[in-house]
Amino acid sequence: MPESDGSRLATELELLEAMFPAQVNYNTKSRDFTFMEQSALLHLRLPERYPSAGLPDVLASRDRSKNDLRNRTKVSIQALGLTEGEEALDAIIACFRLLIEGTDSDLNSGAGTNNDLSAYKMTTGERGRTVIIWLHHLLAPGKRKLAVAPPASISGITKPGYPGVLVFAGPKSPVMEHVNTLKAENWQAFQVRHEEDECWEFAHSGVVEVETMSEAVAAVEFGAHGARRKQQFLEAVGIK
Questions:
Q1: Which of 67, 151, 157, 240 has the smallest number of CB atoms closer than 10 Å to its CB?
Q2: Contact 50, 11 (CB under 8 A)
Q3: Looking at per-residue confidence, does 105 or 179 come out higher?
Q4: Distance between alpha carbon 188 and the CA centroid of its chain, in Å?
Q5: From residue 148, how far is each of 19, 33, 141, 155, 206 by CA, in Å?
Q6: Would the pTM of this model clear 0.70, i.e. be above it?
Q7: 104-133 burial string, b = 16+ CB within 10 Å, else e?
Q8: Is the pLDDT of residue 103 over 60?
Q9: At 102, is the pLDDT very low, low, confident or very high (cuts 50, 70, 90)?
Q10: In the 3-class helix/strand/coil scheme, how is the chain assigned residue by residue?
Q11: pLDDT for residue 59 is more than 60
């Protein structure tokens, strides 16, 4: 006779507590699961019938420097190809630990958007560029996939839905090349709403897709000039 969801989850949690003493916590009422490693945090919500059905949802994720890793964590977990009906928490924790180790390495080595841009400047003498694009909508999977796959020197965000929003920052030539590649697609509306010769900073590297406008605002608000860039972003997308 197969084990119940509750029994399977209890066994899974017991094993995790043995592997990571004092690092895991589960709230049976809210079904919230947290894993902590020093100041790094992974916060998940487990579906009602997990592990038999559904997979954990990422509510929050941050590295040891308290940088927001929620979107990167979601993308990394998706890449695992987890199967519903199987216990997944150990694989998700392992994925998260690799992610925070990677961000720590980036900080220690000085890697990141600004460093990539500095290296690019040294070899090309080219300035940075940031572009904000407003779209009537961004729904087609092919276009969404194309938007998050620019040259490696570009960072930014994309927000699908109505409206669609794209923000790209990096060396000027690769940024404009990516913008022109996207512009060549068949769009109902494609408007460059903001351009400047300055490379905006993000807590993540590369281009990530966010789900809501509030997440997009939080992403552009990162860094020393976050307040000004938030205002520029809101004006560009028509929210003042």
A1: 240
A2: no
A3: 179
A4: 27
A5: 36, 29, 11, 9, 8
A6: no
A7: eeeeeeeebbeebbeebeeeeeeebbbbbb
A8: no
A9: low
A10: CCCCHHHHHHHHHHHHHHHCCCCEEEECCCCEEEEEECCEEEEEECCCCCCCCCCCEEEEEECCCCCECHHHHHHHHHHHCCCCCCCCHHHHHHHHHHHHHHHHHHHHHCCCHHHHHHHHHHHHCCCEEEEEEEECCECCHHHHHHHCCCCCCCEEEEECECCEEEEEEEEHHHHHHHHHHHHCCCCCCEEEEEEECCCCCCCCCCEEECCCHHHHHHHHCCCCCHHHHHHHHHHHCCCC
A11: yes
In 3D, which of 35, 11, 1 has the Cα closest to residue 87? 11
191 pLDDT above the threshold of 50 = yes
CA distance 36 to 66: 12
In angstroms, the CA 139 to CA 90 distance is 33
pLDDT for 131-155, tens place per residue? 999 999 999 988 999 998 887 788 9
Domains observed in the chain: 5-108 (3.10.110), 113-236 (3.30.70.100)
